[in-house]
């Protein structure tokens, strides 16, 4: 298969089309193929992020100033 030729054929089809549904379908396909940064994290990192979000939802948070005091920074 000649990938460059295939890409040109697809582009030509898109350029010549006035089908809004086709264009929207292509946009959705491209968006759905984009990787989310979360997917690139290790399982442990994903768990840490999920745990942090759960703590945030529960209101278990403290300010930056409180964190500095807690860990001895000025």
Describe the structure.
The chain is mainly α. It has two domains: 3-33, no CATH class; 37-70, no CATH class. The protein is built from four helices and no strands. The longest helix has 15 residues, at 43-57. The chain is elongated and about 65 Å long. It starts with a helix and ends with a helix. The relative contact order is 0.05.
The termini sit apart by 63 Å
Number of E strands:
0
Structural class: mainly alpha
Which series of helices and strands comes N to C?
Answer: HHHH
Q: Could you name the ranges where pLDDT drops below 50 across 5 or more consecutive residues?
A: none
Q: Give the helix tally.
A: 4
Average pLDDT reading: 89
Report the principal-axis shape.
elongated
**Per DSSP, what share of the residues sits in E-state strands of 2 or more residues?**
under 5%
């Amino acid at each position: 298969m000649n990938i460059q030729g295939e890409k040109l054929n697809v582009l030509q089809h898109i350029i010549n089309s006035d089908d809004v549904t086709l264009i929207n379908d292509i946009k959705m396909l491209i968006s759905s193929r984009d990787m989310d940064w979360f997917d690139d994290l290790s399982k442990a990192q994903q768990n840490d992020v999920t745990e942090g979000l759960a703590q945030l939802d529960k209101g278990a948070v403290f300010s930056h100033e409180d964190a500095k005091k807690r860990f001895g920074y000025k």
